[in-house]
Amino acid sequence: MEAHDEDEDQTLLNPAHALVGTWSKYRDMANAFADWMVRDEGGQKVVGGFKKYGQILYTRAPKEEMKWVAVEMSK
For residue 1, which of 71, 73, 72, 63 has the smallest C-alpha distance? Predict the structure, then answer.
C-alpha cells in the first residue's frame, strides 16, 4: 500500500478484504469467491469499473498486494 501525502489529487486507496473462516459451512464457495476477487479479469475488473454518478469509486488492488494474497491462499 502507498503512504498518503498532501497531494489533493492523489488517489485514495479503499481496501477491502475477503476472509474465509476455518469452519465456514461453504468454504469451497468462499475460497472460489476470494480467488475470483483477486483475478485481473474477475473481481478486480469489476472493482476498477464500479461507478456512481459517473465517478469511479474504487481502484484495483496494488500488484504487490496481489502477490501476497496468492501466497496466503495457497496455504
Answer: 63
Confidence band of 75 (pLDDT split at 50, 70, 90):
low
List alpha helices for the chain, DSSP H.
27-38, 43-49, 63-73
pTM score of the predicted model: 0.60
CA atoms within 13 A on the CB side of 21: 4
DSSP, residue by residue, 7-25: -TTSPPP--------TT-T
* Torsion sign over Cα 42, 63, 33, 48: negative
